[in-house]
Design goal:
Layout lengths: L1 H10 L4 H19 L8 E4 L1 H4 L15 H13 L2 H4 L3 E3 L28 H10 L3 E7 L15 H11 L3 E5 L7 H13 L6 E4 L13 H9 L4 E3 L8 H18 L8 E3 L12 H13 L4 E3 L8 H7 L2 H7 L8 E4 L6 E7 L2 E7 L6 E6 L8 E6 L4 E7 L1 E6 L4 E7 L1
Parallel strand pairs: 1-2, 1-8, 2-3, 3-4, 4-5, 5-6, 6-7
Antiparallel strand pairs: 9-10, 10-11, 11-16, 12-15, 13-14, 13-16
Helix pairs in contact: 1-2, 2-9, 7-8, 11-12, 11-13
Length: about 425
Amino acid sequence: LKLQFLYLIALTPDHSHTMKAALMLLALAGGAAAKDLAPTPPMGWMNWVIFRCNVDCASSNTTCINEDLFKVHTDALVSDGYLAAGYDTIHIDDCWMERTPPRDAEGKLSWDKARFPSGMPALGAYMHAKGVKFGTYTAESPTTCAGYPASSDHEDIDAKTFASWGVDYLKVDGCGPVAYYEKGYPAMGAALENSGRDIVYSCSWPAYLGSNETAKGDCYKSMIAHGCNLWRNWADIQCNWGSLHGIIEHYGKYGEYLQQFAGPGHWNDMDMLLIGNDCITENEARAQMAIWSVMASPLIMGNDLRLVPDAHKAILLNKEAIAVDQDALGKAGKRVSGDASTGQVWARTVSGGQAVALHNPTHDALDVTLDFSAVGLSGAVNVRCIWEQTDLGSFTGSFKATVPAHGAAFLKLTQ
């Protein structure tokens, strides 16, 4: 198919339209191949939201970026039921690399020897022995966002290095000249394909292209064509309601446009789950879980698994909420109605019905009404509460819920 693409370009003097058509063919082919790696949105745990780039292990040994932190969280993922629920990957974010020298004598990246004395292959083996997948991080820039060695112009050797360590998932950030990404992300995709190991490929390219998602269409098609299994669309999440609310509103505005790019093997990534942290309330945690699931976003926790409150843990482990996110149809949802100052209806087609979140972004409790016709249903509709995992009854025409401030009712509709 890639040879056909080049042939089409060569034959056409003014080939702008032909390039777009060929790029779509590549996207379709790349998407088909990627389905095997991420048929549903990835799930797991990542350290960045809480632990950032804390490398001061002398004064904060239990919260610094070292191998013990990731072993402890691997153990917690298993013992606390997260792995069984589908959260199957531990992701090491930025700041794991050796800085001096930035590459070894063979030109390979290496790990900080003081903080990861056993080495990355051994840490990956520890995860694999527990049934957990191994995720790590680099960037398409000379250095990472925290100033550690990264992968621009080293995609091939780095992909082979990660494969040799047993890496199962690679998050690739930006952090450098945006003009390089058009070359760099495809190069890393090709390098991973040729690495000899199946590695889920998380791309950050569109997050560096501004806020207008409708201007990023060619980028999304290119990422699918070159093997990106998921991508960060927009701003980094911060541990507060304001940031979470802003991301919800962004996807409310652009969700309908973004639907076309999401599906088995390639997903829009709304960023990490704040659930489990004290920076958001239980109601806000429910809103995030419901909307992320309706949007078919990856569910990657950004918390300290040792400190997750029971109420938040119940949200993270709610099997019916997870089933919405992981629905095999792979159809992303959208905001059907509402805005930042009113009750909102978010909906997604899932196996056997519709999953609906009724979200209240305001500061007071609010009655939110769902008109069944807005989600393509008529006649008697069976309504089930996903949070309580109980049937609420059969309703005709509409359903109304009183939703707490910043919260969300989460429903499964069937007929």
